[in-house]
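target protein:
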Amino acid sequence: MPTVFREKGFRFTFYSNEGFEPCHIHAIGNGGEAKFWLPSCQLVWSYNLRAHELRQLLKIVKGKCPELEEAWNAHFGR
């Protein structure tokens, strides 16, 4: 589970066994987790996070989308 970066108490990562899925990123922190599709930055699901945290995460993901896609492609060899 490579960590791409950390910000505002969250770790942005992907699971190495999820290479069969479309490009996405997980944000883990504050006792919860959220998953976003890339490059659309659409929230797929979340667990135990409040609306303001999800808005904050979405803003972060949108701002770093090219870097996140690049990390995904590098890790999964695409």
About this structure: The mean pLDDT is 95. The chain has two helices and five strands. Strands lie at 3-7, 10-13, 24-29, 32-37, 43-47. The helical segments are 51-63, 65-76.
